[in-house]
Amino acid sequence: MEKPHTRPLPRPLFLNLLQIQMPVGAITSILHRLTGVVLAAGVPLGMFLLWRSLGGEEGFAQVVELLHHRAFQAVVVLLVWALSHHVLAGVRHMLTDINIGSTLHKARRSAWAVNLTAAALALLALGVLP
Amino acid sequence: MTPHRRPGPTGLPAWLVQRTSAVYMLLFLVALLAFFGWHPLHSYAEWKRWVAHPAISLALALFFAALLAHMWVGLRDVLLDYARPAGLRRALLVLVALGLCTGAASMAWLLALQHV
After folding, report:
1. Domains plus CATH for chain A?
2. Distance (Å, rounded) from C-alpha B91 to C-alpha B82?
């Protein structure tokens, strides 16, 4: 018997990010990607400052002095948050690769831990800066 | 579906590059934090001497190699997911690749300068 010819229905698409209820793991996953892009944007700045700091006494002093500027401190805190989140979420990801913490309950808990610890480390950086 | 070649490593190689570079960078960052926690730097001379130490220079060179490889896999994934149409995606991939090569050359030069 020949199967009835049916056209596949278009897949439903709903992308209102304000109405989708995302589980905490999804937020951690998206932030892992976002922080990766933020860090990538910070790399040229870091390389420029490394050049400057190794280019002579004057450049070194300038880079140290920069750390006292409010605007630059804000950038540093943002980058510390991004690095903390990216590293912690990355470690979480690799642990899941070897099947550690991959049950739903544990994965939810570790996702919360990543998001909160990264924020705490950013606050710590805020306190440590001159 | 027409098969098309994706730029750079995909599948298992990309997975492996992403993880080995991540583990190396993680160890490097932990070592760096521990070291500067014990021996804070106070002057330009100390900073120069530290970077020019052969073991540190080598570790830094490996760090930048890992960083740029990691960035390539990550940024390529992001562009393949979001950049449309194909022309724009290709242009952005070329731009990122050029940027990363420039970064690699720049860091290699900077490290070489510490040893002349």
Report:
1. 24-128 (1.20.1300.10)
2. 13
